[in-house]
Design goal:
Layout (H helix, E strand, L loop, with lengths): L2 H10 L15 H14 L7 E3 L2 H8 L5 E5 L5 E3 H19 L8 E5 L4 H12 L3 E4 L6 H11 L3 E5 L3 H8 L8 E5 L12 E3 L7 E6 L7 E6 H15 L6 E4 L6 H14 L2 E4 L5 H9 L11 H4 L6 E4 L1 H11 L4 H10 L7 E4 L6 H10 L6 E6 L3 E5 L14 E2 L4 E6 L21 E6 L6 E2 L3 H7 E2 L8 E11 L20 E7 L4 E4 L2 E4 H9 L4 E11 L3 E10 L9 H8 L11 E4 L13 H9 L11
Parallel strand pairs: 1-8, 2-12, 4-5, 4-6, 5-9, 6-7, 11-12, 11-13, 13-14, 14-15, 27-28
Antiparallel strand pairs: 2-3, 9-10, 10-20, 15-16, 16-17, 18-19, 19-22, 21-22, 22-23, 24-25, 26-27
Helix pairs in contact: 2-4, 3-9, 4-5, 6-7, 8-9, 10-12, 10-13, 12-14
Bound molecules: malonyl-coenzyme A and adenosine monophosphate.
The site of adenosine monophosphate has 18 residues, from strand 15, strand 22 and strand 23.
């Protein structure tokens, strides 16, 4: 046992076990306990067998020598052939550490960086038929404490890098103590093992993502693996992922966008996932350009040692940052990056998680010499639901397209509460009818964890007996678009037909989308009200060119505590309570917040009154 490891073991106490050295134990007591556990599970040490989940069946079929994952900065590569062997190892270690050979339906939280290790960990938890709860390492311990308590996590897995963070969380006041397991890093080059897929069924395997909503604490969205598979299949059909796709991954991994669209689905298709996180515009431009930095700027993966990026999926803020930094690149880089993102090289660039402003879409198309961003609409609870089509004519400005394969969508009139049937998109006066988007199908989540009331509230019964509809809270109109959904091109699919959906906004003013991150105004208000400085507060969505929306706070100070409060002081006060993107970017201190007779604040009016000055000067800088 190395000195460093002994020290680390001591610091963590007897709860820790190093994954790749399962016999390295930290205390004599834990050794005997552990040995007992080994014998209990020894019959299950099936390094070469996994349950027959569709994702494993797909991975087994891929060329074992093809690249599954690349770490962009180090250049380290991991092949499809090594993936399932590594998954089986980690799955077995979960059993060993838990001292149980059945983790069916248990929640396993994990703090692992964007890497091959994250992919292996996620799949290993599914292989154990458990529910994977990915945590954001950027969250303060108090937010992670909430998730661990709420999900009743049996285990907390942490990479070496995030073990200190995991320890910090374990030192908070937890309802129960999850078993901590430190995962060592895979270096690449594991043997290609023959993995047997056993017909044991998926059990309760799935993923649970925490999302802010109209309640003051985030909700756990339970996505069974069957829904994860349905989401992946739908996207493969719509966006045609292939083994030739090379995806540059710049997104956080505790959201549906970064996990299902950019990990789970590419794994189904045998695509390559290259991790480059956190997002940095200069680094992304350099990576795009790399395979084209040849004397005549032709694509040369052999000489440059870099394959081209064919697939990129991001939020509008990321495209906006890329556009505004491009001007600062030197001429050679400008030219190479333009070639790299042109449609011949970058097969598909997708925008979603927030409304795509048309100026960003146009500027990207111009810079890339014709790559029109494909916009789609999704949600943690439903995966991807609506999408524009692969055909360029089907990427209509301002529209999120059509229901994806396998997804059923309808609009329910926000005024009359009637379903807006096909052909009834206009009222008697010829005005467009605005409706809430409701969805159903195999891609939809199962429930809000331990929250039957919220689950019941967000689903409505159907009249046709074909299943309940999920209420998204997003409002839209449907209209025909000349020339869209009509192409005979081979990429045209049956789902890109009929009227297209255009999102207008959300029903609730209490949900803010900033840089693709969802923020609950109520959650922020709750934390602010617990500060001694704050007597009253309203948290609002302030329109922003750069972020889509910014979190804004209108505050009445508690004069007994302070008479002045700066944005910096506010940020400092909230730093340990809220993830940084939830902390208001703009603050106004006022003497009075107008309320109606019911005591309610009209946030849509208040934002106009108070933040008028912030609406300008925050353009995208394209
Ligand atoms: C970071 N900051 C934000 C922010 N992200 N503030 C508001 N909104 C955000 N989204 C804060 C940081 O905490 C920091 O504050 C300051 O801004 C500058 O940080 P930065 O380093 O410049 O920001 P960066 O790390 O580059 O992040 C920006 C970003 C990131 C756009 C790359 O927010 C991001 O990856 N967003 C994507 C989120 C996502 O994947 N959403 C999908 C959800 S699923 P300070 O005070 O510390 O300086 C979903 C369904 C669907 O929506 O349809 O896909
Ligand atoms: P989240 O809860 O973080 O998964 O965010 C889901 C929400 O993001 C949706 O309910 C929408 O409000 C918003 N959203 C996602 N994609 C789009 C889009 N293309 N246009 C507008 N809003 C979007």
């Amino acid at each position: 046992m190395s000195l460093a490891r002994t020290r680390l073991g001591r610091t963590l106490g007897s709860r820790i076990l190093h994954l790749h050295s399962p016999f390295t134990l930290t205390t004599p007591n834990s050794r005997s306990l552990f040995n007992n556990k080994i014998s209990l599970v020894s019959g299950l040490r099936m390094a070469s067998s996994l349950p027959k989940l569709p994702v494993f069946e797909a991975i087994v079929r891929h060329d074992p020598n093809s690249t599954a994952v690349i770490h962009s900065r180090s250049g380290r590569r991991f092949q499809y052939g090594e993936l399932l062997g590594d998954v089986a190892k980690v799955r077995n270690q979960l059993y060993e550490k838990a001292g149980r050979n059945d983790l069916d339906g248990e929640r396993v939280a994990f703090l692992v960086e964007n890497s091959y290790d994250y992919v292996v960990t996620l799949l290993a938890i599914l292989a154990a038929k458990s529910i994977a709860v990915p945590l954001s390492p950027a969250f303060p311990a108090s937010e992670l404490q909430y998730i661990i308590n709420h999900s009743e996590a049996l285990m907390l897995l942490a990479s070496n890098r995030f073990t200190p963070k995991a320890q910090e969380v374990l030192q908070t006041d937890l309802d129960s103590e999850p078993i901590l397991l430190q995962l060592n890093k895979f270096q690449g080059g594991s043997a290609h093992e023959n993995i047997t897929l056993e017909k044991t069924g998926p059990g309760a395997a799935g993923m649970m993502l925490y999302t802010s909503g109209t309640t003051n604490r985030p909700k756990g969205v339970l996505i069974p693996q069957a829904a994860m598979n349905a989401q992946a299949r739908s996207l493969i059909q719509a966006w045609e992922y292939t083994p030739e796709d090379h995806l540059l991954h710049v997104l956080p991994l505790h959201h549906i966008h970064g996990t299902i669209n950019a990990i789970f689905t590419p794994l189904f298709s045998g695509s390559t996932i290259e991790f480059m996180f956190p997002f940095n515009a200069d680094a992304v431009w350099k990576r795009f350009a790399a395979p084209f930095l040849t004397p005549d700027q032709t694509y040369d993966p052999v000489k440059t040692g870099q394959e081209r990026i064919t697939f990129f999926t991001a939020v509008p803020t990321i495209y906006s940052r890329l556009l505004s930094t491009h001007k600062g690149l030197d001429p050679e880089m400008q030219s190479a990056t333009r070639t790299a993102i042109s449609p011949t090289n970058l097969r598909l660039s997708i925008s979603g998680s927030a409304a795509l402003p048309t100026p960003i879409k146009r500027a990207w198309a111009e810079l890339s010499m014709g790559n029109v961003l494909l916009e789609r609409f999704g949600m943690t609870e439903v995966g991807m639901a609506l999408s524009c089509g692969l055909d360029v004519n089907d990427r209509v400005d301002g529209s999120v397209g059509w229901p994806l394969p396998g997804v059923e969508a309808r609009l329910v009139d926000v005024d009359t509460h009637q379903v807006i049937e096909k052909g009834q998109e206009k009222d008697a006066d010829g005005r467009e009818r605005v409706g809430e988007i409701q969805l159903r199908g195999p891609t939809i989540f199962a429930e809000y964890w331990r929250n039957p009331d919220a689950t019941t509230k967000e689903f409505v019964e159907s009249k046709d007996g074909k299943g309940m509809w999920f209420k998204t809270g997003d409002v839209a109109v449907r209209r025909p678009v000349e020339g869209a959904g009509k192409s005979e091109a081979p990429t045209q699919k049956d789902w890109t037909k009929g009227d297209m959906y255009f999102i207008l906004g959300r029903k609730s003013a209490d949900i803010i989308k900033s840089g693709g991150e969802k923020v609950s105004a109520l959650e922020v208000e709750r934390e602010m009200l617990s500060l001694p400085q704050v007597a009253e507060v309203a948290v609002l969505a302030v329109p922003s060119g750069k972020w889509g929306q910014k979190v804004g706070a209108v505050v009445i100070l508690d004069k007994e505590h302070c008479t002045k409060w700066t944005p910096l002081e506010m940020r400092r006060a909230l730093k340990d309570r809220l993830a940084s993107y939830k902390i208001p970017q703009v603050l106004r201190v006022v003497d009075h917040i107008p309320r109606n007779a019911m005591g309610k604040i009209n946030k849509k009016m208040l934002v106009k009154e108070v933040f008028q000055d912030d609406f300008s000067g925050d353009e995208m800088g394209l």
